[in-house]
Design a protein that fits this description.
Strand content: 5-15%
Strand order of the largest sheet: 1-4
Largest sheet: 2 strands, antiparallel
Oligomer: single chain
Amino acid sequence: MSILIKGMEMPKSCGNCFFDTHCDKWRLRNWGAPPPDDCPLVSVPTPHGRLIDENALLKGCGYIIADGMACIPVKYIANAPTIIPAEEGE
């Protein structure tokens, strides 16, 4: 399971990160070093629209495949379970 901390900015380096237990000591001493490729933090661009559970959507709607694309009726998208609500401005 993951968590979202609303309003928190993505740290620029491991040295100023609250979750520094993942980074090695070299990165912590060298504050300007970029996060490692396997950093567990992921930036969510803002503002963003409503983020939904795609698997629940596909499981519940009986989608149609046409030309290799999934065609999903709008009513199913509108009623899909929301994982993260839309940010202000959306």
